[in-house]
């Protein structure tokens, strides 16, 4: 009996030991190698990098953010190989013991020829730990022919602040105008962006990608980036002999609009690294029609051009860029009323009394705008880790606004502004094979704004000279799935103004200064789930119009009153994003909280101004502490290979914390969703899309407004896109119907909603030929 018991005990111990060893081995072989692959030169993520573990013959491909993970590895020493075309291979020995391994791998580019392909890799990357979304590829193709503001409405959390149907400004999380910075090929766009009806002077056709950064980016870009940044980026210049041309032909039924654009890109065979691009577009549209009537004097005309030439090799690079923007826009004639009774009547009626027919003619009131932008940028690689950069930009903006006046005065502008802007950026980037990288820089801006004599009207804003000096530094720590970034900036601004009122000279000399800082983090929880968090302070000194406006703003058909005692806005914004992606689904959720001290806003008063030129509503610039908060939600899902769907929505609240009331001109809640059916081969596909935009009534109105907020509305849209191969070339045919059911509606964020409905049905035909 004792012998049997002993044998049983030995068997049990043997089995237990074996199971224990198997359990230990099972636990030990759940280790992983996790990493992120980026460019050594500029920290840009590298998607599609090949990662291979020699010993176990397994590997991974880096995703769109450069991240990868190799799972189920046992303890031991492994050889990790990382490869990407045009970059030096990385071979690294990694020892796994009791914990997994994570690291950021920086690939160094090398100039090489491979079957006619030459890579230099000198394009800069904007890396940020705040919420970022971009328009590119098919989505950008479908937006062609729209203004920049209308195109950006395809991004969750971005809406527009418009004046009629031809003038729109992008709004990010409730902020717009001087709180949003737009970069045209890396140069901050400087026009008269303070006006609600001053649309960005930029041609969307020059963009290969349009990126929206939703955080406070004042450390990186300066005070005007308080609410976010919009990057309008052309494609890279070629570095070898090649030729590519993009031709767009577009037509629309509403306004009988015609739009043409052509872009040609080429490279030199004799001078390696030399490339160029030229682009031009023209647009013509007539009277816009609401579902039941034409809106008088709402035509537009545009003529634009841009050109770039650049050279780069492994050591240096330089680029020269020029763009010209020219537009003439009609202002809704019914917004300019003759007397107080007429103004009250048209607001009560909600639509024009006058009847008009279609015409391409543009009469007063109208605006003419021309904008010149020139850029010179150079960089020099001090060594493989340090790069010095110099960028100079020059801009000339001329804005003329014409009012309804009698006789020969009718041909003279009532507002004639000329703005000169010089910007200089000097900065160094450093990247290392270890976990740190950063940028240190100096930014100088000089502006001179003048009222051109001869208008016969007291200038709305005074002449002014402004100089802004900014010094900043940013550092980033990257290790595997984790990125932590921080920065600090100091700005000093001086503004000197002068103008004659009643024969007397009025002048002012104002100084503003402030420190801003931010800290943010990005973490990839798994291959499918990432989280970002960014906390940043920001500031914005009051603009000249907010300080000194004192009269009729013709383009806005309103009288605006400034306040010279306004203080600088100071804010603290916290943005958090969670992104889930799989083979068939993508969901991104962003929540934000933005506390703004001394928030400046244009508030409607219960007053009107009567003059020989008509009767106008009076607005005044006020200041209060504000709390903005909200969320954006967007996503897509592939139900089958042919059927997919998308959705995007946003909610924003903006409270005056001093009076516990609401601010005017804040977007109402909205959601856009749609279904797409696509069939055919990748290069010979057909895609049908049916979408629906739902916009709620803005119930959070200020204490006084000229008219109640308009009711909620729903719009249906239809789109068809066919992609064809024509020999070695590509042909894209698009057909779109906007406002499919010709619904009458008014958008709360349209300043002309008091006088008219928004645009009715519009049928668009789009042809794109790439050769």
From TrEMBL:
It is a multi-pass membrane protein. GO terms for molecular function: siderophore uptake transmembrane transporter activity. It comes from the Bacteria. PANTHER family: HEMOGLOBIN AND HEMOGLOBIN-HAPTOGLOBIN-BINDING PROTEIN 1-RELATED, TONB-DEPENDENT OUTER MEMBRANE RECEPTOR. Residues 330-740 form the TonB-dependent receptor-like beta-barrel domain. One of its GO terms (biological process) is siderophore transmembrane transport. It holds the Pfam family CarbopepD_reg_2. It is found in: Cell outer membrane. Keywords: Cell outer membrane, Membrane, Receptor, Signal, TonB box, Transmembrane, Transmembrane beta strand, Transport. This is Iron complex outermembrane recepter protein. Residues 126-229 form the TonB-dependent receptor plug domain. GO terms for cellular component: cell outer membrane. InterPro entries: Beta-barrel_TonB, Beta-barrel_TonB_sf, CarboxyPept-like_regulatory, Plug_dom, Plug_dom_sf, TonB-dep_rcpt-like. Belongs to the TonB-dependent receptor family.
